[in-house]
Write a structure and sequence with these properties.
It is found in: Cell membrane. The chain has 19 helices and no strands. By secondary structure, it is an all-alpha fold. It has one domain: Na+/H+ antiporter like fold, CATH 1.20.1530.20. The N and C termini lie far apart (65 Å).
Length: 408
Protein backbone atom coordinates (compact mmCIF):
# COMPACT_ATOMS: atom_id res chain seq x y z
CA UNK A 1 0.00 0.00 0.00
CA UNK A 2 1.45 3.45 -0.93
CA UNK A 3 3.13 5.35 1.87
CA UNK A 4 1.02 8.39 1.02
CA UNK A 5 -2.18 6.49 1.85
CA UNK A 6 -0.70 5.10 5.07
CA UNK A 7 0.33 8.53 6.30
CA UNK A 8 -3.06 9.93 5.27
CA UNK A 9 -4.71 7.41 7.63
CA UNK A 10 -2.28 8.37 10.41
CA UNK A 11 -3.15 12.04 9.95
CA UNK A 12 -6.87 11.26 10.00
CA UNK A 13 -6.36 9.53 13.35
CA UNK A 14 -4.47 12.58 14.67
CA UNK A 15 -7.25 14.89 13.46
CA UNK A 16 -9.89 12.76 15.15
CA UNK A 17 -8.03 12.79 18.47
CA UNK A 18 -7.54 16.56 18.26
CA UNK A 19 -11.27 17.14 17.65
CA UNK A 20 -12.39 15.03 20.63
CA UNK A 21 -9.46 15.50 23.00
CA UNK A 22 -11.54 16.83 25.93
CA UNK A 23 -13.94 13.83 26.14
CA UNK A 24 -11.00 11.47 25.64
CA UNK A 25 -9.00 13.10 28.44
CA UNK A 26 -11.91 12.58 30.84
CA UNK A 27 -11.79 8.84 30.20
CA UNK A 28 -9.05 6.34 31.05
CA UNK A 29 -7.58 6.68 27.54
CA UNK A 30 -4.31 8.62 27.41
CA UNK A 31 -2.53 9.92 24.31
CA UNK A 32 0.05 7.06 24.33
CA UNK A 33 -2.69 4.43 24.80
CA UNK A 34 -4.76 5.89 21.94
CA UNK A 35 -2.01 6.21 19.35
CA UNK A 36 -0.04 3.09 20.24
CA UNK A 37 -3.31 1.17 20.03
CA UNK A 38 -4.25 2.83 16.75
CA UNK A 39 -0.86 2.05 15.25
CA UNK A 40 -1.09 -1.57 16.41
CA UNK A 41 -4.61 -1.90 14.98
CA UNK A 42 -3.60 -0.50 11.59
CA UNK A 43 -0.28 -2.36 11.52
CA UNK A 44 0.55 -5.91 10.38
CA UNK A 45 -0.67 -7.37 13.68
CA UNK A 46 -4.10 -5.80 13.06
CA UNK A 47 -5.69 -4.77 9.78
CA UNK A 48 -2.40 -4.72 7.92
CA UNK A 49 -3.05 -1.29 6.38
CA UNK A 50 0.24 0.17 7.64
CA UNK A 51 3.15 -2.00 6.54
CA UNK A 52 6.21 0.12 7.19
CA UNK A 53 9.44 -1.77 7.92
CA UNK A 54 11.83 -0.91 10.72
CA UNK A 55 14.62 -0.15 8.21
CA UNK A 56 12.36 2.02 6.05
CA UNK A 57 13.96 5.36 5.16
CA UNK A 58 10.77 7.15 6.20
CA UNK A 59 10.95 5.60 9.67
CA UNK A 60 14.63 6.54 9.91
CA UNK A 61 13.93 10.18 9.03
CA UNK A 62 11.00 10.52 11.43
CA UNK A 63 12.90 8.86 14.29
CA UNK A 64 16.06 10.91 13.76
CA UNK A 65 14.24 14.25 13.64
CA UNK A 66 12.03 13.30 16.59
CA UNK A 67 15.00 12.26 18.72
CA UNK A 68 16.92 15.45 17.88
CA UNK A 69 14.02 17.77 18.68
CA UNK A 70 12.87 15.81 21.74
CA UNK A 71 16.32 16.02 23.32
CA UNK A 72 16.59 19.71 22.41
CA UNK A 73 13.09 20.64 23.60
CA UNK A 74 13.29 18.71 26.88
CA UNK A 75 16.67 20.19 27.78
CA UNK A 76 15.57 23.75 26.95
CA UNK A 77 12.92 23.60 29.68
CA UNK A 78 15.45 22.92 32.46
CA UNK A 79 16.73 25.86 34.51
CA UNK A 80 20.10 24.99 35.98
CA UNK A 81 19.96 27.77 38.58
CA UNK A 82 16.94 26.09 40.14
CA UNK A 83 18.76 22.76 40.45
CA UNK A 84 21.05 24.29 43.06
CA UNK A 85 18.26 25.30 45.42
CA UNK A 86 14.89 23.74 44.62
CA UNK A 87 15.63 20.54 42.76
CA UNK A 88 17.31 18.38 45.36
CA UNK A 89 14.94 15.49 44.66
CA UNK A 90 15.55 15.22 40.90
CA UNK A 91 19.28 15.76 41.43
CA UNK A 92 19.36 12.73 43.75
CA UNK A 93 17.19 10.70 41.36
CA UNK A 94 19.43 11.54 38.40
CA UNK A 95 22.89 11.40 39.97
CA UNK A 96 22.30 8.44 42.31
CA UNK A 97 19.14 6.70 41.16
CA UNK A 98 19.87 6.64 37.44
CA UNK A 99 23.34 5.00 37.55
CA UNK A 100 22.01 2.47 40.06
CA UNK A 101 19.07 1.74 37.75
CA UNK A 102 21.36 1.05 34.77
CA UNK A 103 23.63 -1.13 36.92
CA UNK A 104 20.79 -3.08 38.56
CA UNK A 105 19.03 -3.45 35.20
CA UNK A 106 22.19 -4.83 33.60
CA UNK A 107 22.59 -7.36 36.42
CA UNK A 108 18.94 -8.44 36.17
CA UNK A 109 19.20 -8.99 32.40
CA UNK A 110 22.40 -11.03 32.78
CA UNK A 111 20.84 -13.15 35.53
CA UNK A 112 17.71 -13.84 33.46
CA UNK A 113 19.60 -14.21 30.15
CA UNK A 114 23.04 -15.62 30.99
CA UNK A 115 23.80 -16.26 27.29
CA UNK A 116 23.38 -12.57 26.46
CA UNK A 117 26.67 -10.60 26.13
CA UNK A 118 27.15 -8.10 28.94
CA UNK A 119 27.44 -5.24 26.39
CA UNK A 120 23.96 -6.07 25.08
CA UNK A 121 22.63 -6.25 28.63
CA UNK A 122 24.09 -2.80 29.33
CA UNK A 123 22.65 -1.45 26.08
CA UNK A 124 19.17 -2.78 26.88
CA UNK A 125 19.33 -1.41 30.43
CA UNK A 126 20.38 2.04 29.15
CA UNK A 127 17.53 2.05 26.63
CA UNK A 128 14.96 1.14 29.29
CA UNK A 129 16.18 3.56 31.98
CA UNK A 130 14.91 6.98 30.69
CA UNK A 131 11.44 8.03 31.83
CA UNK A 132 8.60 9.82 30.06
CA UNK A 133 6.62 12.35 32.09
CA UNK A 134 3.91 12.42 29.40
CA UNK A 135 2.56 9.15 30.80
CA UNK A 136 2.18 10.73 34.23
CA UNK A 137 0.33 13.92 33.24
CA UNK A 138 -2.60 13.40 35.67
CA UNK A 139 -0.09 13.30 38.54
CA UNK A 140 1.78 16.34 37.26
CA UNK A 141 -1.39 18.40 36.74
CA UNK A 142 -3.26 17.45 39.93
CA UNK A 143 -3.36 20.34 42.43
CA UNK A 144 -3.34 17.94 45.39
CA UNK A 145 0.08 16.58 44.43
CA UNK A 146 2.86 18.78 45.91
CA UNK A 147 4.80 20.80 43.35
CA UNK A 148 8.11 19.36 44.56
CA UNK A 149 6.96 15.88 43.50
CA UNK A 150 5.62 16.94 40.09
CA UNK A 151 8.77 19.01 39.47
CA UNK A 152 10.97 16.06 40.43
CA UNK A 153 9.20 13.78 37.94
CA UNK A 154 9.30 16.46 35.24
CA UNK A 155 12.96 17.40 35.66
CA UNK A 156 14.09 13.79 35.89
CA UNK A 157 12.25 12.99 32.67
CA UNK A 158 13.68 16.02 30.92
CA UNK A 159 17.29 15.22 31.74
CA UNK A 160 17.62 11.44 31.94
CA UNK A 161 17.20 10.77 28.21
CA UNK A 162 20.18 13.01 27.43
CA UNK A 163 22.19 11.44 30.25
CA UNK A 164 21.39 7.91 29.04
CA UNK A 165 22.36 8.65 25.44
CA UNK A 166 26.18 8.39 25.87
CA UNK A 167 25.72 5.04 27.61
CA UNK A 168 23.50 3.82 24.74
CA UNK A 169 26.08 4.87 22.11
CA UNK A 170 29.00 3.40 24.10
CA UNK A 171 27.25 0.06 24.71
CA UNK A 172 26.15 -0.18 21.07
CA UNK A 173 29.73 0.36 19.90
CA UNK A 174 31.04 -2.26 22.32
CA UNK A 175 28.41 -4.73 21.15
CA UNK A 176 29.14 -3.99 17.50
CA UNK A 177 32.85 -4.58 18.09
CA UNK A 178 32.24 -7.78 20.06
CA UNK A 179 30.00 -9.11 17.29
CA UNK A 180 32.38 -7.88 14.55
CA UNK A 181 29.32 -6.46 12.80
CA UNK A 182 31.06 -3.14 12.22
CA UNK A 183 32.72 -2.56 8.86
CA UNK A 184 35.88 -1.61 10.80
CA UNK A 185 37.37 -3.91 13.42
CA UNK A 186 37.44 -1.52 16.37
CA UNK A 187 40.15 -1.98 18.98
CA UNK A 188 39.60 -0.81 22.56
CA UNK A 189 41.84 2.21 21.83
CA UNK A 190 39.87 3.05 18.69
CA UNK A 191 36.59 2.76 20.60
CA UNK A 192 37.97 5.02 23.33
CA UNK A 193 39.11 7.62 20.80
CA UNK A 194 35.78 7.52 18.98
CA UNK A 195 33.71 7.78 22.15
CA UNK A 196 36.02 10.52 23.43
CA UNK A 197 35.50 12.53 20.24
CA UNK A 198 31.74 12.02 20.48
CA UNK A 199 31.62 13.08 24.13
CA UNK A 200 33.93 16.10 23.64
CA UNK A 201 32.97 17.48 20.22
CA UNK A 202 29.25 16.84 20.67
CA UNK A 203 28.84 18.94 23.83
CA UNK A 204 31.27 21.56 22.45
CA UNK A 205 29.14 22.07 19.34
CA UNK A 206 26.01 22.14 21.50
CA UNK A 207 27.39 24.80 23.84
CA UNK A 208 28.63 27.06 21.04
CA UNK A 209 25.53 26.83 18.84
CA UNK A 210 23.09 26.98 21.79
CA UNK A 211 24.87 30.02 23.26
CA UNK A 212 25.08 31.91 19.97
CA UNK A 213 21.47 31.04 19.13
CA UNK A 214 20.18 32.38 22.44
CA UNK A 215 22.22 35.59 22.21
CA UNK A 216 21.22 36.25 18.60
CA UNK A 217 17.52 35.73 19.35
CA UNK A 218 17.70 38.03 22.37
CA UNK A 219 19.46 40.67 20.26
CA UNK A 220 16.94 40.40 17.41
CA UNK A 221 14.05 40.62 19.86
CA UNK A 222 15.53 43.62 21.65
CA UNK A 223 15.89 45.56 18.39
CA UNK A 224 12.51 44.27 17.09
CA UNK A 225 14.11 42.68 14.04
CA UNK A 226 12.06 39.48 14.25
CA UNK A 227 8.43 38.44 14.64
CA UNK A 228 6.89 35.88 17.05
CA UNK A 229 6.02 33.35 14.34
CA UNK A 230 9.69 33.14 13.32
CA UNK A 231 10.94 32.67 16.88
CA UNK A 232 9.73 29.06 16.88
CA UNK A 233 11.31 28.40 13.49
CA UNK A 234 14.60 29.86 14.72
CA UNK A 235 14.37 27.83 17.93
CA UNK A 236 13.96 24.49 16.17
CA UNK A 237 16.65 25.42 13.65
CA UNK A 238 19.14 25.86 16.51
CA UNK A 239 18.51 22.27 17.63
CA UNK A 240 18.97 20.89 14.10
CA UNK A 241 22.03 23.08 13.54
CA UNK A 242 23.63 21.69 16.71
CA UNK A 243 23.05 18.14 15.48
CA UNK A 244 24.53 18.66 12.02
CA UNK A 245 27.32 20.89 13.33
CA UNK A 246 28.46 18.17 15.75
CA UNK A 247 28.24 15.44 13.10
CA UNK A 248 30.40 17.57 10.79
CA UNK A 249 33.28 17.75 13.29
CA UNK A 250 33.03 14.12 14.43
CA UNK A 251 30.89 14.62 17.53
CA UNK A 252 27.61 12.99 18.50
CA UNK A 253 24.77 15.07 17.08
CA UNK A 254 22.19 13.81 19.56
CA UNK A 255 24.34 14.75 22.55
CA UNK A 256 24.95 18.13 20.88
CA UNK A 257 21.21 18.72 20.47
CA UNK A 258 20.63 18.00 24.16
CA UNK A 259 23.48 20.27 25.31
CA UNK A 260 22.37 22.99 22.89
CA UNK A 261 18.87 22.95 24.37
CA UNK A 262 20.27 23.11 27.90
CA UNK A 263 22.54 26.03 26.94
CA UNK A 264 19.87 27.88 24.95
CA UNK A 265 17.29 27.65 27.73
CA UNK A 266 19.69 28.95 30.39
CA UNK A 267 21.41 31.69 28.35
CA UNK A 268 18.29 33.20 26.78
CA UNK A 269 17.26 36.29 28.76
CA UNK A 270 14.10 37.37 26.96
CA UNK A 271 10.95 35.38 27.63
CA UNK A 272 9.49 34.24 24.32
CA UNK A 273 5.94 33.06 24.91
CA UNK A 274 5.54 31.92 21.32
CA UNK A 275 8.47 29.53 21.63
CA UNK A 276 6.79 27.79 24.59
CA UNK A 277 3.51 27.44 22.73
CA UNK A 278 5.23 26.37 19.52
CA UNK A 279 7.38 23.83 21.29
CA UNK A 280 4.42 22.23 23.10
CA UNK A 281 2.56 21.69 19.82
CA UNK A 282 5.60 20.35 17.99
CA UNK A 283 6.53 18.08 20.90
CA UNK A 284 3.02 16.64 21.10
CA UNK A 285 2.87 16.00 17.34
CA UNK A 286 6.24 14.22 17.39
CA UNK A 287 5.14 12.12 20.38
CA UNK A 288 2.01 11.09 18.48
CA UNK A 289 4.03 9.94 15.47
CA UNK A 290 6.43 8.02 17.71
CA UNK A 291 3.69 6.12 19.54
CA UNK A 292 2.04 5.33 16.20
CA UNK A 293 5.32 3.91 14.90
CA UNK A 294 5.72 1.99 18.14
CA UNK A 295 2.32 0.34 17.75
CA UNK A 296 2.56 -0.32 14.01
CA UNK A 297 6.25 -1.20 13.56
CA UNK A 298 7.97 -2.04 16.85
CA UNK A 299 5.17 -3.85 18.69
CA UNK A 300 4.67 -6.67 16.13
CA UNK A 301 8.42 -7.38 16.01
CA UNK A 302 8.78 -7.27 19.78
CA UNK A 303 5.76 -9.45 20.49
CA UNK A 304 6.93 -12.01 17.90
CA UNK A 305 10.16 -12.49 19.88
CA UNK A 306 8.70 -12.09 23.37
CA UNK A 307 8.99 -14.89 25.92
CA UNK A 308 8.85 -15.36 29.67
CA UNK A 309 12.37 -13.98 30.07
CA UNK A 310 11.66 -10.74 28.23
CA UNK A 311 8.39 -10.39 30.15
CA UNK A 312 10.17 -10.78 33.50
CA UNK A 313 12.77 -8.22 32.41
CA UNK A 314 9.99 -5.78 31.48
CA UNK A 315 8.20 -6.24 34.80
CA UNK A 316 11.50 -5.90 36.62
CA UNK A 317 12.28 -2.55 34.97
CA UNK A 318 8.87 -1.17 35.91
CA UNK A 319 9.13 -2.31 39.53
CA UNK A 320 12.31 -3.43 41.30
CA UNK A 321 14.86 -1.97 38.87
CA UNK A 322 13.15 1.41 38.97
CA UNK A 323 11.83 1.65 42.50
CA UNK A 324 14.76 0.27 44.54
CA UNK A 325 17.39 2.71 43.16
CA UNK A 326 14.98 5.64 43.58
CA UNK A 327 14.29 4.57 47.17
CA UNK A 328 18.05 4.45 47.83
CA UNK A 329 18.60 7.85 46.21
CA UNK A 330 15.94 9.42 48.46
CA UNK A 331 17.46 8.23 51.74
CA UNK A 332 17.77 11.24 54.04
CA UNK A 333 15.00 13.24 52.36
CA UNK A 334 11.99 14.18 54.49
CA UNK A 335 9.37 12.34 52.49
CA UNK A 336 6.46 10.17 53.54
CA UNK A 337 6.33 6.57 52.36
CA UNK A 338 3.50 7.33 49.91
CA UNK A 339 5.48 10.20 48.38
CA UNK A 340 8.47 7.90 47.93
CA UNK A 341 6.14 5.38 46.28
CA UNK A 342 4.84 8.03 43.86
CA UNK A 343 8.38 9.04 42.85
CA UNK A 344 9.45 5.43 42.48
CA UNK A 345 6.39 4.19 40.63
CA UNK A 346 6.13 7.06 38.18
CA UNK A 347 9.18 6.29 36.12
CA UNK A 348 7.15 5.43 33.01
CA UNK A 349 8.95 4.22 29.90
CA UNK A 350 7.94 5.84 26.65
CA UNK A 351 9.30 8.20 24.04
CA UNK A 352 13.05 8.02 24.74
CA UNK A 353 13.10 4.20 25.03
CA UNK A 354 11.19 3.84 21.75
CA UNK A 355 13.47 6.27 19.93
CA UNK A 356 16.67 4.75 21.32
CA UNK A 357 15.56 1.24 20.36
CA UNK A 358 14.63 2.31 16.82
CA UNK A 359 17.89 4.25 16.51
CA UNK A 360 20.04 1.29 17.60
CA UNK A 361 18.12 -1.21 15.45
CA UNK A 362 18.52 0.99 12.37
CA UNK A 363 22.06 2.26 12.97
CA UNK A 364 23.86 -0.92 14.09
CA UNK A 365 23.74 -4.49 12.83
CA UNK A 366 23.73 -6.24 16.19
CA UNK A 367 22.96 -9.81 17.24
CA UNK A 368 20.22 -10.21 19.86
CA UNK A 369 18.57 -7.01 18.57
CA UNK A 370 15.22 -8.83 18.40
CA UNK A 371 15.49 -9.68 22.09
CA UNK A 372 16.30 -6.03 22.85
CA UNK A 373 13.26 -4.93 20.85
CA UNK A 374 11.09 -7.47 22.66
CA UNK A 375 12.20 -6.11 26.05
CA UNK A 376 11.55 -2.56 24.88
CA UNK A 377 8.13 -3.32 23.45
CA UNK A 378 6.96 -5.21 26.54
CA UNK A 379 8.35 -2.61 28.96
CA UNK A 380 6.92 0.38 27.10
CA UNK A 381 3.63 -1.39 26.33
CA UNK A 382 3.09 -2.41 29.96
CA UNK A 383 4.15 1.07 31.09
CA UNK A 384 1.67 2.78 28.76
CA UNK A 385 -1.12 0.69 30.27
CA UNK A 386 0.01 0.52 33.91
CA UNK A 387 1.05 4.14 34.32
CA UNK A 388 -1.69 5.47 32.07
CA UNK A 389 -4.42 3.65 33.99
CA UNK A 390 -2.98 4.28 37.47
CA UNK A 391 -2.11 7.99 37.13
CA UNK A 392 -5.61 9.40 37.61
CA UNK A 393 -6.64 7.14 40.52
CA UNK A 394 -3.36 7.74 42.37
CA UNK A 395 -3.59 11.49 41.79
CA UNK A 396 -7.24 11.52 42.88
CA UNK A 397 -6.52 9.69 46.13
CA UNK A 398 -3.24 11.46 46.91
CA UNK A 399 -4.62 13.96 49.44
CA UNK A 400 -6.79 11.33 51.18
CA UNK A 401 -3.91 8.87 51.38
CA UNK A 402 -1.48 11.48 52.68
CA UNK A 403 -3.93 12.47 55.43
CA UNK A 404 -4.05 8.84 56.56
CA UNK A 405 -0.28 8.57 56.45
CA UNK A 406 0.16 11.73 58.56
CA UNK A 407 -2.14 10.48 61.33
CA UNK A 408 -0.19 9.34 64.44
Amino acid sequence: MPHEFQFALILIGIMGFALFVRPIEKSWITLPIFFAGLGFGLGPAGLGIINLEIDDSTIHTVVEITLILTLFLDASKIRLRNLKTHYGLPARMLLIGMPLTIALGTILIILLSPDLPWAMALLTAAILTPTDAALAQPILADKDVPMRLSEAINVESGLNDGMALPVVVFAALLMANEASSSSINLTPIAIGQFVGAQVVFGPLAGIVIGYLGAKLLDLATHHKFTQPIYEGIFFLSVGLAAFFGAETIGGNGFIAAFVAGLTFGNVKMTRHKFITEFLEGESTFLSILTFMIFGAVLAPIGLAHANWTTLLIAIGFLTLVRMLPIAISLIGEKLHLYERFILGWFGPKGLASILFALFVAEQYELPFVDEMLACTVLTVGLSILAHGLSAKPLAHHFEKTMQKVKKP
